[in-house]
Amino acid sequence: MNNETTLVLIRHGETEWNQTGRYQGHADSPLTPRGLAQARAVAQVLNDETFDAFYSSDLGRARRTATIIADKLGRRFLTDSRLREQHYGLMQGHDTKAARELDPEFFECLARGDADYAPKGGESRRQRHQRAITALSDIAGRHQNELVLIVTHGGIVDSLFRETLGIPFENPRHYSLYNAAVNRFSFSDGSWTLRLWGEVSHLDGAGATDAGKSFTAA
């Protein structure tokens, strides 16, 4: 029997700190008007599917996005703190210039591909990656042969993409992580397969696309 689970991962809608380039991590900021439009647009495109389960990060920006989707789909969601973005420690709430002054070693380690350096008061990329893959594998194992919706953060989507394609998380990212894009993965016999990546056509019609924008700490 093929026990294949399909996970649909959605990065939350654009936030005020996304717009101004501030590190969020475990801190938070509200969705912008465009972020709200993105959430409504992805809710509309997902309305044609029947999900067996629905999970969200417990951070405010993800829960706000998930609530808009849940209202459209007519169902509830469960929160899981393991689906949170990477904790950026002292840098949270600061733009890149200020963050460099607070923790210059983080950016030096980033440049040389060191995945084990944790920002002061935060966690490393390796720690985030392991947390994310453990959480997503647990959820997939819990819902064999089912379709699961997950609202989370750019870093978590990035971790699953790298895990699936075998891209070391020390390597620089040369692909985009769009707000409210649809990303689809399947899990079977302990391995992941990418089915759909970065689908944003639903955002064009809503005037809510962020294609072409650089990724800011989600």
Topology:
Elements: E1 5-11, H1 16-20, H2 33-46, E2 53-56, H3 60-73, E3 78-79, H4 96-102, H5 104-111, H6 125-142, E4 147-152, H7 154-165, E5 182-188, E6 191-199, H8 201-205
Parallel strand pairs: 1-4, 2-3, 2-4
Antiparallel strand pairs: 1-5, 5-6
Helix pairs in contact: 2-3, 4-5, 6-7
Commentary on this structure:
- This protein is α/β, with parallel strands linked by helices and 218 residues long.
- It has a six-stranded mixed β-sheet with strand order 3-2-4-1-5-6.
End-to-end Cα distance: 38 Å
* Tally of individual domains: 1
CATH topology: Rossmann fold
Write the CATH homologous superfamily. Phosphoglycerate mutase-like
Structural class: alpha/beta
Q: Can you summarize the main beta sheet? A: 6 strands, mixed
CATH architecture: 3-Layer(aba) Sandwich
Q: Tell me the series of helices and strands, N- to C-terminal.
A: EHHEHEHHHEHEEH
Query: Largest beta sheet: what is the strand line-up?
Result: 3-2-4-1-5-6
Oligomer: single chain
Percent helix range: 25-40%
Strand fraction: 15-25%
Radius of gyration: 17 Å
- Low-pLDDT stretches are none
Mean pLDDT: 93
Keywords for this entry:
Rossmann fold; six-stranded mixed beta sheet; 218 residues; 8 helices; single chain; alpha/beta
How would you summarize this macromolecular structure in one to three sentences?
With 218 residues, the chain is α/β, with parallel strands linked by helices.
